[in-house]
Specification:
The complex is a heterodimer of chains A (552) and B (504). Chain A is of the alpha/beta class. Chain A has 20 helices and twelve strands. Chain B is mainly alpha-helical and 504 residues long. Helices cover 75% and strands 0% of the residues of chain B. Classes of the chains: A alpha/beta (552), B mainly alpha (504). Chains A and B meet through helix 6, helix 7, helix 9 and helix 10 of A and helix 1, helix 4, helix 15, helix 18 and helix 19 of B.
């Protein structure tokens, strides 16, 4: 970075105005990923931080509980790591009284009204949330939310809004879930030149706090669509409708507010933009930032194994819908008894039950000899090279690393048509509907049995992967977006950039700025890398991917 | 995205959120009854049937759109097959067709506290049954005053230690970090085995308690920790199974002492083997539970560690209160009734522990349901008081019945002296006070419960101080103190436990 002085930026980062600032400080805001968990989003975070050594990064991670060990060795330009736990013991504190009580209720009321009334303008929600933020920075928001006052307010507002009553149980349950989601409001506000939220939702809540307190701008990336994931999650929960309504309405409001306040929204695929625009995002600030992969790590395989091996690489997670893949393989195995299915990847904490369920399914289908859970593998390219075709059966994806890596490795892919998968694969792989074992089995059989088709797909996939998804492209996109946020055009500068040491150039700049006709021109916004990917399709969130350990 | 899974995982673990049970798929030709009303070839209507379940409970069109996309419907399909510009517009149309049918809130299962009654009874048995081998073991020894103090301290320490230990273990399990729970329990088991053994050897060899009494105290400590391991991991049947030989032997010895008292070494060795068996089973369970993958540790907040200490203190105070009769005997320097009769005095209370647990769970369970039926605090409070009162009376009645069962044979045989009667009354009152304390602890008021019991203990100790007085007067004083404890504890319970905030 040049040695620019930017008073606004200096103030946000805590430096005295006018102080020289050699490096920018970026707050990377994540939830449930880097640096405590491996996976696609974590890989992406690590790539950005390592790929931009010119910036210092402070990582603030929203986590379920504190105290988990790091899952990554941190690059040198990470200057701090902190976590914001959503769960965990919070000692009871005295309930707010007097003026504090009024402050709390005055903030809670518009917040609750905006959550209950979808037609109310977003400003009410913003006002309420900001009020709760200010309260939470000085008092215990947990104690205040779990008070009779809060319960009574919520019950009364529900009755006013919906002409219906809600039970004490539902009120307590909703308050409990909202309280945990609002815990980030009590966290110290991060100080940085800019924030980069890795998703909407709670990481963006941290970014909003920094913007309210210090005016810090933020970029919001979206691998999945946070709001969509919340809807899907709650479709699988057994909760009273009123509780679902309150919690999901909160997330919908938060999503809209975060889109509105972001300086840049950077989804990893075109598919996500639909949800973003539908929920109020300004299309003019949306910049697609495709995931990138280091091509050096994924050389094209020179040959393929003689066995009919299908590989899957990723995190053992319900979103990957491995049941469909196993069922598909069971069908395939009847027609191709010599086929194998290798499943590579770790079992994240909390997914042990799901993993056991999969093993039971394998046993029930008598596939124990043919389906292998191989765990993590390093390097991951080994998994791709040891297979003839790579399968993806996810019900939800952003821009999956697995598929990009497989393509770069020169392997044909068979994937579910979700999220940005179609954008990645184009016409170099087969796409099937999600949750359709028959279609998946048929596609796998087609690719395995037709050598010419398989080799053709593999060849074209390698070209496509290397053309559209190199890591440098992704880093270039973010580098230019960061530059725009960190160094916004101001009407005057207090110091010329170092690079301008040419007398003629200086004269030209002098002339421009001293001219009466000169207007403060914004720095030209770097053109986003054009997304020229044919066969754009619909899809969903959650970039699945790998890091060196074979997770995804 | 792993984010919500991570954030929701703890919610699912601690019951704040529950997963839906999988609905069995329709068999070919089978229709759900709601389909019959809207049979149509119109594609939107057919779509509405397919997504009926999601649509009926959708909070907004985007909720339904998310479900549709997860099922494979995208904008292209929306345009080509349904002539709508996007999945969002399609979802809006479908929602207009699907009648709003919010599930009956009362049909929702609100009750995380429901347990089968036999479950509580079996746990109660597990609390009560080990007293039998304990009594048998003691009957083979001559227990001096020092020995009695050693046994009392062993009981109090083991109760306190295992209360704190169980709290730690449940905390880790609640966070989903099973291996951390295993680690703590394993450390405790090893620590007690080694350190407890050394202390027992020292006590046995260098005090007047004697080796046998020290061994019994060590056995109590070991057994309690091992039993805690098994009960934390819900392996009550294993515990019962490993206890059964010792229980059977104890019953035989107690019923036919004349024949078997001549074989103390055999009997005591068998009891030692039984303790070793329980400890071994606990060790095996710890190995079994540590096999699944997962994080090995999770540091706890200072407040959480302090909470475990508070639970340990609570256990110590409760156990100390229950030793009043034994301390009375020591204070008066004679063995008027003998250890066995004091044990008999405690028997109704010990046997009723399962009923006490059942009443705590019952109270929580009924209050959960009451919260679902109430629409305001004002509506909930009287109902909660009523439930609490019923539970108090039910437990009190249980204690009365058990006391009568225990006392009646003796009364019919030899009559009952006043001290025995007073002692039973005192234990009964203590049971009722302890039930109130359990209720407070269950609702997150462990500090209050500990303070109130602690005050009761202090007062109970103070009434001993006057050197003059008879055992009968002292026992009467206990009756008065424990009556006061009942008033204080239950007044607090009726004031604090009727707030909905205590039942989340």
């Amino acid at each position: 970075m040049g040695r620019h002085v930017n008073d606004a930026a200096a103030g946000r980062s805590g430096l005295a105005p006018g102080a020289a600032r050699p490096r920018a400080r970026v707050a990377m805001l994540a939830e449930g990923t880097y640096p405590f968990v491996t996976g696609g989003v974590s890989t992406w975070c690590d790539q950005i931080i390592r790929g931009m050594p010119e910036h210092d990064f402070e990582i603030v991670a929203v986590v379920a509980t504190a105290g988990h060990p790091l899952a990554w060795s941190l690059p040198d330009n990470v200057v701090g790591v902190s976590s914001v736990p959503l769960w965990g013991f919070v000692p009871e504190e005295r309930l707010p009284r007097g003026a504090d009580r009024h402050e709390f209720l005055d903030a809670l009321r518009p917040f609750v009204r905006a959550v209950l009334e979808p037609d109310l303008d977003d400003a009410s929600f913003a006002l309420g949330l900001m009020g709760l933020f200010e309260f939470a920075q000085r008092h215990s928001l947990t104690s205040a939310l779990m008070s009779d006052d809060a319960a009574e307010l919520l019950g009364d507002e529900w009755e006013l809004s919906r002409a219906d009553k809600v039970s004490v149980y539902e009120v307590m349950k909703a308050l409990e879930l909202l309280e945990h989601s609002l815990r980030p409001l009590s966290a110290p506000v991060v100080r940085a030149d800019m924030c980069h939220a890795t998703s909407n939702g709670l990481p963006s809540l941290l970014a909003l706090m920094a913007k309210w307190r210090y005016g810090t701008p933020y970029i919001m990336s979206e691998h999945g669509v946070y709001l969509r994931e919340r809807y899907l999650a709650f479709q699988g929960y057994d909760a009273p409708w009123s509780v679902k309504y309150l919690v999901l309405s909160f997330y919908r409001r938060l999503t809209r507010l975060a889109y509105a306040e972001a300086s840049v929204i950077a989804p990893v695929n075109v598919y996500n933009q639909r949800w973003e625009i539908e929920h109020g995002a300004d299309p003019d600030i949306i910049v697609t930032a495709l995931n990138g992969v280091d091509v050096e790590k994924y050389p094209v395989a020179e040959d393929e194994p003689t066995d009919q091996i299908i590989a899957w690489v990723g995190r053992i997670d319900p979103l990957k819908d491995l049941e469909t893949l196993i069922e598909a393989f069971a069908r395939l195995q009847r027609r191709m008894p010599r086929a194998w299915l290798d499943l590579y990847g770790p079992v994240p904490v909390g997914n042990e039950k799901y993993y056991r369920k999969l093993r039971e399914l394998v046993a029930r289908r008598h596939l124990g000899a043919r389906v292998q859970f191989r765990g993590s593998v390093s390097p991951v390219s080994k998994a791709y090279h040891n297979a003839r075709v790579i399968a993806l059966s996810s019900i939800s994806e952003g821009l999956p690393y697995t598929v990009i890596e497989a393509m770069m490795s020169g392997r044909a892919t068979v994937s579910t048509d979700v999220g940005g998968v179609r954008e990645v694969v184009g016409d170099t792989g087969l796409l099937v509907p999600p949750r359709d074992p028959k279609a998946l089995a048929d596609a796998l059989e087609r690719v395995l049995s037709d050598d010419e088709l398989r080799h053709d797909l593999a060849r074209r996939a390698a070209v496509r992967g290397r053309s559209y998804f190199p890591l440098d492209q992704m880093l270039g996109t973010f580098r230019s977006e960061y530059a725009m946020l960190i160094e916004p055009q101001a009407p005057e500068f207090t110091e010329w950039p170092e690079l301008a040491d040419d007398d003629d150039a200086m004269s030209e700049v002098d002339a421009t700025l001293s001219s009466d006709d000169a207007e403060a021109q914004p720095w030209p916004r770097p053109a986003p890398i054009p997304v020229q990917i044919p066969a754009q399709g619909v899809g969903t969130e959650v970039a699945s991917g790998t890091q060196g350990g074979g997770g995804g | 995205m792993s984010a919500e899974t991570e954030a929701d995982r703890v919610a699912i673990l601690n019951g704040a959120l529950r997963l839906k049970a999988q609905r069995s798929p329709l068999k070919p030709g089978e229709l759900r009854d709601w389909q019959a009303d809207r049979r149509s070839r119109d594609p939107i209507k057919r779509l509405s049937r397919e997504f009926d379940e999601i649509a009926r409970q959708a909070v907004d069109p985007a909720d339904l759109a998310a479900g549709m996309e997860a099922a494979g419907i995208n904008d292209r399909i929306a345009r080509e097959f349904y002539n709508e510009e996007s999945v969002f517009r399609l979802a809006e149309l479908v929602l207009e067709l699907v009648p709003v049918e919010l599930p009956d809130p009362l049909a929702y299962d609100y009750n995380p506290w429901r347990r089968p009654f036999w479950n509580h009874l079996s746990r109660g048995l597990l609390y009560a049954l080990p007293t039998l081998p304990y009594v048998v073991a003691i009957s083979f020894t001559h227990v001096t005053a020092v020995g009695i103090w050693v046994l009392l301290v062993a009981c109090v320490v083991s109760t306190a230690f295992t209360q704190g230990l169980a709290h730690f273990a449940h905390l880790f399990l609640g966070y989903g970090v099973t291996k951390a729970a295993v680690r703590v329990l394993r450390l405790a088991l090893i620590g007690v085995t080694v350190v407890g053994g050394l202390i027992a050897v020292w006590i046995g060899l260098s005090t007047a308690a004697g080796v046998l009494v020290a061994s019994i105290a060590y056995g109590v400590l070991l057994y309690t920790v091992a039993a805690t391991v098994l009960m934390v991991f819900k392996r009550e049947r294993l515990l019962l199974g490993s206890l059964t030989p010792a229980i059977l032997l104890s019953v035989v010895v107690l019923l036919a002492p004349g024949h078997l008292l001549g074989y103390p070494v055999v009997i005591c060795s068998f009891l030692v083997v039984c303790v070793v068996a329980v400890v071994s089973v606990a060790a095996w369970v710890l190995w079994d539970e540590s096999r699944p993958r997962g994080p090995k540790w999770m540091p706890l907040a200072r407040a959480e560690v302090a909470a475990a200490g508070l639970h340990a203190l609570y256990g110590a105070v409760a156990a100390a209160l229950m030793t009043f009769a034994v301390v009375d005997v020591l204070q008066f320097g004679n063995v008027i009734d003998g250890e066995n009769l004091i044990g008999v005095g405690m028997l109704p209370l010990v046997v009723s522990l399962g009923f006490a647990e059942a009443n705590v769970y019952g109270f929580r369970s009924e209050c959960s349901k009451a919260m679902a039926r109430s629409y305001s605090r004002q509506q909930f409070k009287p109902e909660a008081r009523h439930i609490l009162a019923r539970r108090l009376l039910a437990y009190a009645a249980t204690l009365v019945v058990l006391t009568v069962i225990v006392l009646l044979p003796r009364y019919l045989a030899v009559g009952i002296d006043s001290i025995t009667m007073l002692r039973h009354v005192a234990y009964g009152e203590l049971g009722i006070a302890l039930l109130g304390a359990m209720m407070l602890v269950s609702c997150g008021l462990a500090r209050k419960a500990t303070i109130l019991l602690g005050l009761g203990l202090v007062v109970d100790v103070l009434v001993r101080l006057p050197a003059s007085g008879t055992l009968e007067e002292l026992t009467t004083a206990h009756v008065v103190v424990f009556a006061g404890l009942i008033v204080v504890v239950w007044w607090t319970a009726f004031r604090d436990l009727v707030s909905p905030l205590r039942h989340r």
